Amino acid sequence: MAVGLANTLVPALFLGAGSGVYLFVVLIPMIGVLLSGPNDVLMRVFVLGVGVLAFATMPIVFVNAPPVLDGTGAQKFLFASSAIGVALFGSFFALYYRWLVDQAESDLAAANARSERLLLNVLPQPIAERLKAEESSLAERIDEVTVLFVDLVDSTVLGELLSADEWVALLDEVFTSFDDLTDELGLEKVATIGDSYFAVAGLDSDGSDHMKRAVDMALAMRQEIAGWEVAGYGPLTARFGLASGPVVAGVIGKRKFRYDLWGDTVNTASRMESLSEPGMIQVTAHIQRSLADRYSFQARGHILVKGKGPMETFYLLGPRSNADTGLTETAGMTG
């Protein structure tokens, strides 16, 4: 303000109000307001008050131009150039600050988009929307989903064969390829637990084909793993387990929270995986009966499942048209 007033008052003192130099005073309150801090209310009031007072007072205090300038072309030129200068300077300043605001809003939008992507990497979209809406309860019961567990075989051996960095890099590459498959087939990754991958199909609004998507995911994962080979060990293998049924899904806690599933279906899918054989996809009888017309299965018979007792289970072989005809096909078996 001091610099602005000095640069206006001194020329006005010598050139008079008729020169139009005093018009530059109109910029002082505008610039002062634009440069004030977000909470400088009193400063804005003061700046506006001084600027308006100076603008109203100068034509009264400095009325006439010097006789040598009064009424000449130079006076008219000074007045016109002052008016044009004020307009151009004010417009430039306003446009510059508009550009700064646009840049800030663009940066904020980009930051919000990054935050949104990070949030959706942790939570399914419906849960993320409810979290942003600050809902108190982020848990819900879902009547029918298909849960998939995958566990790499011989992780202890691989952990000893590879250095820590190599082992983590391998897991990262394999699980990243699994992430791509979940996006492609419409599943939701729930978690990675050590060398295990936990995903679910059917959380979305249109979850009618969750079983098909989950078994397609398991088959795609098995094919993906077959392409990985570790020097000194050989090709990677994994065990797969699937189960369908109701779950409770949601977020608990305030710090380092994560989306999780609970219920007998989750436990059963985990047991299907842990009791499976390397390279095999073990499913419950419920999944086999539901998909028998589209996929081929091999009966494994009844196995003892902790917490469940004897259960009839099946190995998923593949789509019926591509199934290995050398294996016993029991697609029509109802158990």
Structure characterization notes:
The protein is an alpha+beta fold and 335 residues long. The chain folds into 2 domains: 2-118, no CATH class; 137-322, Nucleotide cyclase, GGDEF domain (Alpha-Beta Plaits), CATH 3.30.70.1230. The model is unreliable at 323-335 (pLDDT under 50). The chain is built from 10 helices and 10 strands.
Tell me the series of helices and strands, N- to C-terminal: HHHHHEHHEEHEEEEHEHEE
- In the CATH hierarchy, the architecture of the largest domain is 2-Layer Sandwich
Mean pLDDT: 83
Strand content: 15-25%
Characterize the overall form. rod-shaped
Number of beta strands: 10
Secondary-structure class: alpha+beta
What is the CATH superfamily label of the largest domain?
Answer: Nucleotide cyclase, GGDEF domain
CATH class division of the largest domain: Alpha Beta
Domain count: the total is 2
Number of helices: 10
- C-alpha end-to-end distance: 89 Å
Largest sheet: 8 strands, mixed
Kindly provide the radius of gyration, computed on alpha-carbon positions and rounded to a whole number of angstroms.
Answer: 37 Å
Helix content: 40-55%
Model regions low in confidence, pLDDT < 50 over at least 5 residues: 323-335
